[in-house]
Specification:
The complex is a heterodimer of chains A (602) and B (191). Chain A is mainly alpha-helical and 602 residues long. Helix content of chain A is 62%, strand content 5%. Chain A contains 19 helices and five strands. Chain B contains eight helices and six strands; from the N terminus they run ααββαβαβαααββα. The relative contact order of chain B is 0.12. The chains are: A mainly alpha (602), B mainly alpha (191).
Chain lengths: 602, 191
């Protein structure tokens, strides 16, 4: 790890706090019904939507009605996105003439974007026309993020209210999160990205004449598109030469901005944020990592403001920051160190003024080691899942960092909304454990934690590991599951473990060597994504409802303070303990074994 | 089911706003404010697009600087199908690929003593990386000098002129744009 890496990390966290704190105060006002700042811009549009939809904006509901509205809205989004992909061949804004997306892939992609996962079993520029990118994927980038924010706001209201039967109006929270939070930020970030070189057009793909010609081999196909085989049964290869390069185009920046701000992560292109048209400069990269953490961090400050004790927000922020810095530094160290067998071959992995060195397989020159590994940690701390490098080519321990960050449950800042409500569930567990230790009834923010809340908490904490480990076990035991891996040995196991960890935690990044576009993986990851999302959201809303109904207890000498360093340590310990208990055996079989193999390889 | 009407109406309205109005307005604004960037930062010479300053091209002849190895298919630097090799760190195929690239560099012309810069023999993530490190450019100077018969000092000047340092002193890595450098090489020959 270099001094430059430390400076980058410090700069990032500094700018993050400077921007997310005022945004958190703004969010607290927006979700208290005040129209301040940019909210005045789209307020007329907001009123129009309520009028057309028959929504009474001042009527709040209990948690059950809130959950029903949320599920109906998300099911509608799933159905529409599925049909849009199936029908894209007949629709406008499709200059490349992309055909219908296959049923299993369309199913997977629809769940993926509705569940804020944005796992991609397809390559963007070879599969999706511009209309699906805009009216399908971009829309879900907004509203799946707004759904997450709504759930977080509802849970915070559960703590900030007392003796109340209602937790808010889902339609109002959803529309306000979209119009007053996500949309203005997306416009600003989108234009900043274009200024750096991210493209934004509706043109067909451009052909350019390259300086050199290139020869390549291509399998010969017959009139039906099937490969022609020779007598030995091997495909016939033709050698072709071309001086043309086809540049994929499209409305990228508008999607890129909300992809980051909504912690979605679904790339316009196959190479995601490592594609120069998605992420052209170190500055655009910095803005992207900032955009990922901006709203999750702001929600933590909003939480402090809304419960009337900003210190509660600072404590949660500190717990997240401690976990983030620790794992980010592990990543810096592992990749800078490189691969011993490469050095033995005569590859220079050392750090100098002329090159960052380190392991450069699957990394872009403009980002080097530091900006790559910052992105890796940010995108998997938050449930973004966009990538600016191929995680499959990271060193074993460098690759374990994103896996473990996801396995902590996406609570280190986490997905927009999902990170905060996930961490508050861990806070409930932490005070419960502390209560057991001293023999007192646990309480958090003046609310007694009782049987119902603990049952729901246990459900939330157990659903994801069950999905991850269960689905991984099924895939590893089946020939179809094993057949999809690209790298042999322990790394192949890591590819499968990564896939289901990413899906069930709604991250969406991948060890992309895995051939995930098959009916088996499309359905299995689809199941992981859907239940990993909504089997969490419903119990969280139930907890919100239960909390709102309770009376507020007065603070006395026996109350465990939840704003000091002691609580931060307790919270970090709880998150690490649960994560480690669930996943250490699996990690030992994958990245840990591979690390030991790497050390003796040369 | 009184929630069905808001579910469908709110979804339809938000789809129109975020799925059509927003991206189309952003396209209009971008074309107005940053037309060159929004259309792909193309390098145009005599009215013909030669490439993009952001998208790398394949170079394999000894008289040009080579860029990052590219794993796109069916040909390298296929800008209509981006992607990396996804080779894992302990996969024997990773080592074989690197070995072959080192051999190709040494076969193409004279190289300096010592190890090869990592970015010159390890494939990029997008397969379209337009840049290499200054170390990787300097490693190729002896070959270019010999093939083109240009003094080493002049080539180093061209590299310097096409090198970008850390953005804001801390962001990213120092880098050289390979296509621009090679176009500068061709221009040098012409002058």
């Amino acid at each position: 790890m270099t001094g430059n890496a430390m400076m980058l990390l410090a700069l990032f966290l500094g700018v993050l706090v400077l921007l997310s704190y005022p945004l958190g105060i703004y969010l607290a006002r927006i979700f208290s019904g005040q129209n301040v700042g940019p909210a005045r811009l789209f307020a007329p549009l907001e009123r129009l939507i309520y009028r057309l939809a028959g929504v009474k904006a001042d009527e709040e509901t209990g948690w059950r009605s809130y959950a029903v509205g949320l599920l109906l809205f998300n099911i509608a989004g799933f159905v529409f996105l599925y049909l849009l992909q199936r029908a894209q061949a007949f629709l406008p804004f499709n200059p490349q003439g992309m055909g219908a997306v296959a049923p299993d892939l369309a199913f997977n992609t629809a769940i993926s974007f509705v569940a804020n996962t944005n796992w991609q079993a397809y390559g963007g520029e070879t599969t999706m026309g511009y209309l699906v990118q805009m009216l399908g994927l971009t829309v879900q980038n907004f509203v799946s993020a707004a759904t997450g924010i709504a759930v977080a706001v509802a849970l915070v209201r559960g703590f900030s209210r007392h003796s109340s039967a209602v937790i808010g109006n889902f339609w109002v929270d959803l529309v306000r999160a979209t119009l007053h939070v996500l949309l203005p930020l997306a416009i600003v970030f989108g234009l900043a990205f274009v200024s750096q070189g991210v493209i934004q057009n509706l043109s067909p793909y451009q052909q350019v004449d390259t300086v050199e010609s290139v020869s390549y081999q291509q399998a010969r196909v017959d009139a039906n598109g099937n490969a022609v085989l020779d007598k030995a049964g091997k495909p016939v290869m033709d050698t072709l030469t071309t001086r043309k390069q086809t540049l994929a185009m499209g409305p990228v920046a508008s999607q890129e901005a909300i992809k980051m701000l909504g912690t979605n992560g679904g790339g316009f292109f196959n190479a995601n944020s490592s594609h120069p048209y998605e992420n052209p400069t170190p500055l655009s990269n910095f803005l992207q990592v900032l955009a990922i953490f901006l709203i999750p961090a702001a929600l933590v400050f909003m939480f402090g403001k809304m419960v009337g004790d900003k210190r509660q927000g600072f404590a949660v922020f500190m717990a997240m920051a401690v976990l983030f810095v620790g794992l980010t530094c592990t990543g810096f160290w592992a990749e800078q160190r490189g691969i011993p067998a490469m050095t033995a071959l005569g590859v220079d992995q050392s750090h100098s003024a002329l090159a960052d060195g380190g392991n450069m397989e699957g990394k872009e020159t403009r980002f080097g080691i530091n900006d790559t590994m910052l992105f890796v940690a940010v995108t998997t701390s938050a449930s973004c899942g966009g990538v600016n490098a191929m995680h499959d080519s990271l060193t074993p321990l460098g690759g374990m960092v994103p896996i473990f960050l996801m396995q902590l449950g996406e609570v280190v800042f986490g997905g927009v909304g999902a990170g905060l409500y996930g961490m508050l569930i861990f806070a409930i567990l932490a005070v419960f454990i502390a209560g057991l230790m001293v023999g007192r009834t646990p309480e958090y923010l003046g609310k007694k934690i009782e049987t119902f809340e603990m049952k729901m908490t246990a459900l939330v904490i157990l659903v994801t590991p069950l999905l991850v480990l269960g689905l991984t076990a099924i895939a590893v035991l089946s020939p179809i599951g094993r057949g999809a891996v690209a790298n042999p040995g322990a790394h192949g196991f890591s590819e499968i473990l990564y896939a289901f960890t990413s899906a069930a935690n709604n991250n969406g990044s991948a060890f992309a060597g895995l051939s995930a576009n098959s009916p088996f993986y499309n359905i299995a990851t689809g199941i992981g994504m859907w239940f990993g999302r909504f089997l969490i959201i419903v119990p969280v809303l139930a907890i919100a409802g239960a909390m709102a109904r309770k009376k507020r207890l007065t603070v006395n000498a026996g109350t465990l303070p939840t704003h000091g360093p002691l609580f931060v340590v307790l919270l970090v310990g709880t998150v690490l303990l649960v994560g480690a208990l669930n996943y250490v055996p699996a990690l030992a079989l994958g990245p840990v074994v591979e690390h030991l193999q790497m050390l003796v390889q040369h | 089911m009184k929630q069905l009407r808001p579910a469908l109406t709110v979804f339809a309205m938000l789809s129109l706003v975020t799925g059509l109005a927003y991206p189309l307005a952003m396209t209009g604004l971008s074309q107005l404010l940053f037309p060159a960037e929004a259309n792909g930062s193309l390098i145009v010479k005599d009215g013909k697009a030669m490439g993009s300053s952001l998208i790398g091209q394949n170079f394999s002849n000894p008289n040009y600087f080579w860029g990052r190895p590219s794993a796109t298919s069916p040909m390298p630097y296929n800008a209509a199908n981006s992607g990396g090799s996804n080779l894992g760190p302990t996969n024997p195929a990773t080592l074989d690929a690197v070995k072959a690239r080192i051999a190709a560099l040494k076969a193409a012309g004279p190289v300096p003593e010592g190890p090869v810069p990592a970015d010159l023999v390890q494939a990029s993530s997008s397969g379209l990386d337009p840049e290499i490190t200054p170390a990787a450019a300097l490693y190729q100077v002896p070959r270019i000098a010999k093939v083109r018969n240009i003094p080493v000092e002049k080539i180093k000047e061209l590299i310097d002129a096409n090198t970008l340092g850390h953005q804001w002193g801390v962001l990213g890595q120092s880098r050289v744009n390979v296509l621009k450098l090679n176009l500068a090489l061709d221009n040098y020959k012409a002058s």
